[in-house]
Amino acid sequence: MASSSSASGTAVTERRGIPGAQFVEDVQTYLTQSGLDVNSALAFLQERLQQYKLVEMKLLAQQRDLQAKIPDIEKCLDVVGTLQAKKGTGEALLADFEVSEGIYSRACIEETDSVCLWLGANVMLEYSLEEATALLQKNLENARASLEVLITDLEFLRDQVTVTQVTIARVYNWDVHQRRIQQAIATPTSE
């Protein structure tokens, strides 16, 4: 398919590997420039639409993961902040924590200078309270920035889906119109 911005449509752009959809103003010019017949053009556009839907599902899954991850990081920051606030007071911290889904245990945490953080892939490291705060803050900023980029990608993708759906409708309607014209020429009306 040609990506020129002549009479057939606007310029095609790309965002983070998501190809831009071409809005088709003149279907005849689009078909001529792309070298496709109507059925091939519709098949190409339907395939592109399916690709967009697949990418959308992946991005939505990533968005759900990030939206679940951000509150977890914030909770960890709160716990580390509470431990820092209790430091030097000689007062123990009584905490309920989840052992497994739906199973909780109570712990009495004496004054501590360090915490252990899960990094993923079954890896846990011990950090000082200050290092843990810095790491969690950085992770929170990165997660929020990633979520913003993801939301922008989803908005771009939804625009491409809309443009592709409109283009499919325009090509289909143009084909129906052309067939009616051909049919009217082939069967002249009697007076």
What would you say about this model in short?
The protein is α+β, with helices and mostly antiparallel strands. The protein contains three helices and six strands, in the order ββααββββα.
Quick tags:
two-stranded antiparallel ribbon; 3 helices; alpha+beta; Prefoldin_subunit_alpha; chaperone; tubulin binding; 191 residues; 6 strands
Description:
By secondary structure, the chain is of the alpha+beta class. The chain has a domain at 26-88 and 129-186. The chain is 60% helix and 17% strand. The chain has a two-stranded antiparallel ribbon with strand order 1-2. α2 (38-86) runs antiparallel to α3.
| N-to-C order of helices and strands | EEHHEEEEH
- CA-CA gap between termini: 45 Å
What is the tally of helical segments?
A: 3
Helix/strand/pairing category:
alpha+beta
What topology, given as strand order, has the largest sheet? 1-2
CA-based shape: rod-shaped
Name the beta content range: 15-25%
Mean pLDDT: 89
- Tell me the helix content: 55-70%
Strand segment count: 6
Spans of at least 5 consecutive residues whose pLDDT stays below 50 are 1-10
What radius of gyration results from the CA coordinates? 29 Å
- Major beta sheet summary: 2 strands, antiparallel
Function: Binds specifically to cytosolic chaperonin (c-CPN) and transfers target proteins to it. Binds to nascent polypeptide chain and promotes folding in an environment in which there are many competing pathways for nonnative proteins.
Subunit structure: Heterohexamer of two PFD-alpha type and four PFD-beta type subunits.
Family: Belongs to the prefoldin subunit alpha family.
GO molecular function, one term: tubulin binding
